[in-house]
Amino acid sequence: MKRSTAPIPSRYKRVRNRLCLFLVIITGLSACGGETEIEAIADEPVAVEAEPETAGAAEWNYENTNWEEISGAECQANVQSPVNISTQEAIEAELSDIRYEYEPFPMKIVDNGHTVQVYGTESSFITVEGKRYQFRQFHFHYPSEHTIDGKRHPLEMHLVHQEEGTSNLAVLAVFIEEGTADNPFLEKVFTQIPAQKEEEVQTEVQLMLSDYVPPSQAHYTYIGSLTTPPCTVGVDWIVFREPLQASEEQIAKFSALYANNARPVQALNNRRVLKTEE
Ligand SMILES: [Zn+2]
């Protein structure tokens, strides 16, 4: 199976370049694929998403999600995430399988004040459309950020990957729905959440990232942004259709920490969402 030829990604690139030109003219912002952005992400692997430092030291929260004012961030751009995905409007495409090269690793975990985040391996990769991305971190949102035909799931996991040698990001989004049993893999994470916020804890708990993605490759894909400041644009989103399951208690455990850490859905504007063939 092959991904269909590239007109759509290159179209997005043109949109992004025009946007960056606009931002440079209007605000003097130089973080549009330039050195600033690359350095910010490469130097702060943990801070790819959800660390205020990368948002020009601006504080932000989910009570007020008008993040457009944050200086140095791209939250005002018109190609943002999350979005609502209309299953009818998504375009069927021949998308290549995502190739996983995941290795077990001892989990490092932090409650960073915006979410619970896990990292701790440099030896896990995915290949999407011929590009190889290194795993950086995964974290959770309650409720889900992406909606499917307006419907929200209780939780959404984001596995953030960065293309080798570039600042390009690909994020795997995995929905978690309520099931009857504890999810043993989520249990490994949720039992290790540090009591102290912003304290990174290196554990001996071994994780395997393939336990955190659905067995089915069926997914939607579109170009968007990070869903937290600095809202960096040009992110390749892969939203799996098949949810994982967690128990009511597990979902409640997370929502007791974060009753709402989901950014509202953003306008799709001229973007198209592709979906794998049925
Ligand atoms: Zn996220």
Features:
single chain; 278 residues; alpha+beta; Carbonic Anhydrase II; 13-stranded mixed beta sheet; two-stranded parallel sheet; 4 helices; 17% helix; globular; disordered N terminus; binds zinc ion
What is the element layout, followed by pairings?
Blueprint: H1 7-27, H2 35-43, E1 84-85, E2 91-93, E3 99-101, E4 105-111, E5 116-119, E6 125-128, E7 131-141, E8 147-148, E9 155-163, E10 169-179, H3 184-190, E11 201-207, E12 219-225, E13 233-240, E14 244-247, H4 248-257, E15 274-276
Parallel strand pairs: 1-8, 2-15, 10-13, 10-14
Antiparallel strand pairs: 3-6, 4-5, 4-11, 5-7, 6-7, 7-9, 9-10, 12-13, 12-15
The chain binds zinc ion (ZN).
Mean pLDDT: 85
The helix/strand class is alpha+beta
Number of strands: 15
State the helix count. 4
Biggest beta sheet summary: 13 strands, mixed
Low-confidence regions: 1-48, 50-57
How many separate structural domains?
A: 1
Bound molecules: zinc ion
Sketch the topology as an H/E string, one letter per element: HHEEEEEEEEEEHEEEEHE
Shape: globular
CATH architecture: Roll
Structure characterization notes:
The chain is globular. The protein has helices spanning 7-27, 35-43, 184-190, 248-257, and strands at residues 84-85, 91-93, 99-101, 105-111, 116-119, 125-128, 131-141, 147-148, 155-163, 169-179, 201-207, 219-225, 233-240, 244-247, 274-276. The protein has four helices and 15 strands. With 278 residues, it is an alpha+beta fold. Strand 9 (155-163) and strand 10 form a beta hairpin. 17% of the residues lie in helices and 31% in strands. It has one domain (7-276): Roll (Carbonic Anhydrase II). Strands 2, 3, 4, 5, 6, 7, 9, 10, 11, 12, 13, 14 and 15 form a 13-stranded mixed sheet that branches. Strands 1-8 form a two-stranded parallel ribbon. Residues 1-48 and 50-57 have low confidence and may be disordered. The structure holds zinc ion. Residues 49, 139, 141, 158, 227 line the site of zinc ion.
